[in-house]
Design brief:
Layout: E1 3-7, E2 10-12, E3 18-25, E4 33-39, E5 46-51, E6 57-59, E7 67-72, E8 77-82, E9 91-98, E10 105-107, E11 111-115
Parallel strand pairs: 2-11
Antiparallel strand pairs: 1-3, 3-8, 4-5, 4-9, 5-6, 7-8, 9-10, 9-11
Length: about 120
């Protein structure tokens, strides 16, 4: 059974940076579409970024140019580098893994990012 554990969240001032990590166990991230999502109490969960098995990345318009998703096959994890953070980026960030052929998927429990002065 696969598991995902996020880390790196915290409180940061507007304009600041954070790097989130998502460590995988029980499966290999290189063979899964890996994504970051975020959710606040008042909004539905929304897509943030993804990286496909062949390395193509996709981003929500709201984070393009500010966030970068990456994958480390040796450490079996993905990261989300976030820069120029805004108060509207405040949310619980969760990572998701989906096998492109079988549809098997895993979710992490999330890590809280709070952007406030």
């Amino acid at each position: 059974q696969g598991q995902l554990v996020e880390s790196g969240g915290g409180l940061v001032q507007p304009g600041g940076s954070l790097r989130l990590s998502c460590a995988a166990s029980g499966f290999t991230v290189d063979y899964y579409t890996m994504s970051w999502y975020r959710q606040t109490p008042h909004k539905e969960r929304e897509f943030v970024a993804s990286i496909l098995i062949h390395g193509v990345t996709n981003y929500a318009d709201s984070v393009k140019g500010r966030f970068t998703i990456s994958r480390d096959g040796v450490k079996n994890m993905i990261d989300l580098q976030m820069t120029d953070l805004k108060p509207e980026d405040t949310a619980v960030y969760s990572c998701k893994a989906v096998h492109p052929r079988t549809g098997t998927n895993y979710w992490g429990k999330g890590t809280l990012v709070a952007v406030s002065s």
